[in-house]
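1st attempt posting a full record on here, be nice pls
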Amino acid sequence: MRDLSSPSVQGSGAVKRWGFIAMHAAVAATFIFLLQRLSLNASLESSLLWALTFAVCAAGLAYKQSNR
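the predicted structure (as tokens):
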């Protein structure tokens, strides 16, 4: 007989994994946006574009790491 609590544990793990990925992307985007905008005096459009690019890359890396 299977344990009834098993699916809820797996679901909770999936939520934690996607939360980790989202947090990783948000931190990377915030970091590069602030670096571009405040330190390098880039335009708003450029800073947002770089932030989006870094967020996608960071999310991809976090996704690959979470599957290990």
